[in-house]
From TrEMBL:
Pfam families, per the entry: SnoaL (PF07366)
Lineage per the UniProt record: Eukaryota, Sar, Stramenopiles, Oomycota, Peronosporomycetes
Organism: Phytophthora kernoviae
Protein name stated in the entry: SnoaL-like domain-containing protein
GO biological process annotation, one example: polyketide metabolic process
Highest rank taxon of the organism: Eukaryota
Length: 295
């Protein structure tokens, strides 16, 4: 029996298959047209390759009813919305970080510009004060007169222990310097230090040591033709690049005693406390000076 089955050829098996199919074509069982269509579909299925089954997914121009479009379109829309939201958040966060960085950069640049401007302002005003003090040492009143219009504001005011009401105008200030240098023709600034008050450059100070030999009367004291040294400090307020106010601080009582020879001269006496010349608002006033010189 086994040998008989093994001896059966493929053609004999196909004939058996055809006889079976013919039996389905008997009247009353299956419609012949429908059977032919089914057989044709079966042939296509049996002869189909793997690529035929993947063709709908490989075609970029697949029809809407293709399985590639079988997923819920709402899912893709919602996913796109989520992705866009994440991108938008990242973009906003990046923009905020960039804005913060830009503000920090602008602040640093502004600070550098302010510092550079303050440095330039201080340098210009330092040069003005340095020029005035050096004029004492190089040429006397002539050099002071030469630079007066360039360094003093037209409404400049000078306040000192010997001028409590203040001197107003360039001419009055220069008259004061002339009187001083007439009494001390060899007067010089032996030492001086220029500093900025408060870091803004709006107010500057100069600490100095003035020395000279008195040959003419001054402050009601007759000359003794002796050299004296006076320590003092000057406070300068500016209007633009010109001096608007000068306040001189020095020990008036001690200076008179030195001129009269009553008190031995010391080249570097201690200065009175400068805060005595400031009112509560930090402004130098003649009234404060009046109280300070009664020593």
């Amino acid at each position: 029996m086994v040998d008989e089955l093994l001896r059966r050829s493929a053609s004999s098996e196909w004939r058996d298959w055809e006889e079976t199919l013919d039996s389905f074509g008997a009247p009353g069982l299956v419609d012949a047209t429908g059977l032919e269509m089914d057989l044709h579909s079966l042939d296509q299925f049996l002869l189909a390759t793997a690529d035929d089954f993947l063709e709908p997914f490989a075609d970029a121009n697949s029809a809407p009813e293709s399985p590639i479009f079988a997923a819920d379109s709402g899912y893709f829309y919602e996913q796109d919305q989520v992705d866009n939201l994440h991108l938008e958040k990242k973009l906003k966060r990046s923009q905020r970080q960039q804005t913060i960085q830009n503000k920090e950069i602008v602040a640093m640049q502004s600070e550098r510009e302010i510092n550079a401007q303050a440095e330039k302002l201080f340098r210009r005003r330092y040069d003005i004060l340095h020029g005035i003090l050096e004029a004492w040492n190089t040429g006397g009143i002539e050099d002071l007169e030469e630079i007066a219009d360039n360094v003093y504001d037209d409404d400049v005011t000078l306040i000192g222990p010997d001028y409590m009401e203040g001197l107003h105008g360039v001419e009055a200030v220069m008259s004061h310097w002339t009187t001083l240098l007439d009494a001390f023709p060899d007067g010089i600034m032996e030492e001086y230090t220029i500093q900025c008050e408060g870091g803004s450059g709006e107010k500057m100070t100069a600490s100095w040591v003035f020395s000279g030999t008195q040959i003419y009367p001054i402050h009601g004291v007759q000359p003794r033709h002796k050299k004296v040294c006076i320590n003092g400090k000057s406070f300068f307020s500016f209007k633009g690049d010109k001096i608007q106010q000068v306040v001189l601080s020095w020990n008036y009582h001690e200076t008179l005693l030195k001129l009269m020879g009553v008190q031995p001269d010391k080249a570097h006496d201690v200065m009175p406390h400068t805060s005595a010349f400031l009112n509560p608002a930090g402004v130098l006033t003649p009234a404060a000076l009046a109280g300070a010189v009664q020593l």
